[in-house]
Specification:
By secondary structure, the chain is an alpha+beta fold. Helix content is 38%, strand content 20%. It is built from 14 helices and 14 strands.
Length: 394
């Protein structure tokens, strides 16, 4: 009799759960139970979003509710969630290349309403209107990526500027000021990609290998793999920071390269502006950058068109060559107006064989921009010929 009662209660509970989550894949049911419980007084908004979403969009809404951080569980409005999901599916339906994106990638890297910890806002309405015309006639996902990348700066009129109010700005905060950090620009670009069905996520590192600072950029999904790009675009998988990212340390929170995720991964994205935040999931993607950098460096060294530019800095313009005479100086390498590399010269405690090296093209002129310990900024023009070049910063 007792077993029959237990079985009856289980069947009743299962029936109630199934009815409550009608149309939602079973794998989300337990996750939704937990999410709704943690939502507290905002539970009704989330239940309304799940109840009102069209049947074909049920899984998308369930995915967001199941994995959203608590800050959003207790504050998200049903109307905003419904609009976000509806427009994500609209873009997927409208563009053939967007429809070809696998469900798992669409859910985690197109559908989400946020990238990191930025202020939550309904950017998708404005961005879909802005960027759909640029990709309307694109035949492939790659063409669409390049179209958005090419036009975003002129469309939103935001530039990199250290005077921005904060590093983790939302799209409207950056557009209102006309300026953003590398993180703000990456959020802008990722949201622009997502608004038209292009899978995108924010990537970055808390520290370069030589402690020069942090950097953030974007990744886009294409033909089964991820590529990196930036707000000021070059080709996919081509950027000034590759030599630095190629020296990342896998598994090290500070020195690895991380890619953001909406679904939990067991790791969190290192947000250098607020290290107490741990609700932004991330995946360690260092190995991919290391492999790309090594393969590209090997090709360049073998092509006969590149040579090494070795850079040192000393306390004295006539150094004695002792280890203690050396200065650690942050250096950015430019070809014209384009930054093509960066690094730090070896300081007094580093091995004497540790020299800042750049692989540069022959018969071209480069500019070394650097900052002395007292904050003085300087430049040096270097004409590269046909043999390796040794430079001492003045």
């Amino acid at each position: 009799m007792r077993i029959a009662v237990i079985v009856g209660l289980y069947m009743l509970l299962s029936a109630c759960t199934g009815e409550r989550y009608s149309g939602v894949p079973e794998k989300y049911h337990v996750l939704l139970d937990s999410a709704l419980a943690r939502a507290g007084a905002n539970r009704g908004e989330l239940e309304k979003a799940l109840a009102d979403v069209p049947a074909r969009e049920k899984e998308g809404m369930a995915f967001l509710l199941s994995y959203m951080p608590k800050r959003d569980l207790v504050s998200a409005r049903a109307t905003d969630l419904l609009v976000n999901v509806q427009l994500a599916y609209t873009a997927r339906d409208r563009f053939a290349w967007a429809a070809s994106v696998p469900d798992s990638i669409f859910l985690n890297d197109v559908l989400p309403y946020a990238c990191l910890n930025e202020t939550r806002e309904n950017w998708r309405v404005d961005f879909y209107r802005r960027f759909a015309p640029y990709v309307e006639h694109c035949a492939t996902l790659e063409e669409a990526i390049k179209a958005v990348n090419k036009h975003i700066r002129d469309e939103v009129k935001v530039d990199y500027d250290t005077r921005r109010r904060k590093p983790d700005q939302s799209p409207s905060e950056s557009m209102e000021q006309g300026m953003a950090s590398c993180s703000g620009l990456s959020i802008l670009l990722t949201d622009a990609f997502r608004s038209v069905g292009i899978p995108s996520r924010v990537a970055g590192t808390a520290h370069w290998h030589d402690d020069r600072g942090n950097h953030t950029w974007c990744e886009v999904w294409l033909d089964g793999q991820w590529y990196f790009t930036e707000y000021y675009p070059e080709e996919l998988n081509k950027a000034w920071f590759l030599a630095d990212a190629g020296r990342a340390i896998p598994g090290n929170r500070d020195y690895a390269v991380w890619a953001s995720s909406f679904k939990p991964t067991g790791h969190s994205f290192p947000l250098v502006w607020d290290e107490t935040i741990d609700y932004v999931p991330a995946t360690d993607v260092s190995r991919r950058y290391i492999d790309i950098y090594r393969e590209r460096s090997s090709r360049r060294e073998a092509d006969g068109n590149h040579v090494k530019l070795r850079v040192r800095a000393f306390k004295d313009q006539k150094p004695a060559g002792r280890s203690g005479d050396r200065l650690k100086v942050n250096v950015d390498l430019f070809h014209g107006t384009d930054q093509v590399g960066g690094g730090s010269t070896a300081g007094p405690t580093q091995d004497m064989n540790d020299v800042l090296e750049f692989l540069v093209e022959k018969d071209k002129e480069y500019i070394l921009k650097y900052w002395l310990p007292d904050g003085t900024g300087k430049e040096m023009v270097v004409a590269v010929k046909k043999s390796p070049l040794e430079v001492t910063l003045e």
